[in-house]
Hints:
Blueprint: H1 3-17, E1 23-26, H2 31-44, E2 49-52, H3 64-73, E3 79-82, E4 86-88, E5 93-94, H4 114-120, E6 123-127, E7 136-137, E8 159-163, E9 167-172, E10 177-183, H5 189-195, H6 214-231, H7 233-246
Parallel strand pairs: 1-2, 3-6, 4-7, 6-8
Antiparallel strand pairs: 4-5, 8-9, 9-10
Helix pairs in contact: 1-2, 1-7, 2-6, 6-7
Amino acid sequence: MTDINTKIELICFIANLLKDTNHVAVGAASPIPGAAALLAKEVYGSPRHVNILGSVKNNFFTNGAQELFDCAAQGRIDAFFLSGGQIDGSANINLMGVGDYPTNSPRWSGTFGSAYLYFLIPKVILFREEHSRRVLVDKVDFISAPGASEDNIYRTGGPYGLLTNKAFFKFNKQTRRFSLQSIHEGSSLEDILNNTGFSFDYQPNTPQTVLSSQKMRQTLQQNTRPKIEEVYPQFARTLFANTEQTS
Length: 247
């Protein structure tokens, strides 16, 4: 698949993961998760509420991130997205940088409220397009937000799964390991094994990810486009210009 088609498939895949939610929040600089949440609302009628930070039309928060944190603490957000410069097999994420803190080089954006939200939101989807040993490591250099906690720690939230441009993994909270669920078109089990730095559970006959339907792609083009364009105009122009040419 081309890079644009991969992005479209990722949007549609995430939309299917959100159809059992009521309220989805999307952080800044997250065009693919944002488009997916809006698409799920169009196709399934759920989530009923989508809040994209930075949007005016698709954001009922009036106090930015502070209100996001308040809603999470009150149990009023069902799904959220986190990423990281590094993600390991225990679903720990690193947003600080490579090497020992505080002398990381390079330095990244920082942890912000990721650990707080990771502990409170029940369906956190880890999303990183790049699938490589540089990103998916055996052990992160710095834990910005832990994927699991001890039994005596209060925690209502945590990782649901990990989605990349090659595959989808679900996270088993009991074993604290990822399990490979499906492999995207153009990839293979050998490819996944070669490009993943952590160990994970898998079946030799792991199925291929089901491609999106024409109806879902049309809904993305016709209904979701103007909504995501409001907050991510360049992303929308690039994505949908290609869709128009290939549809």
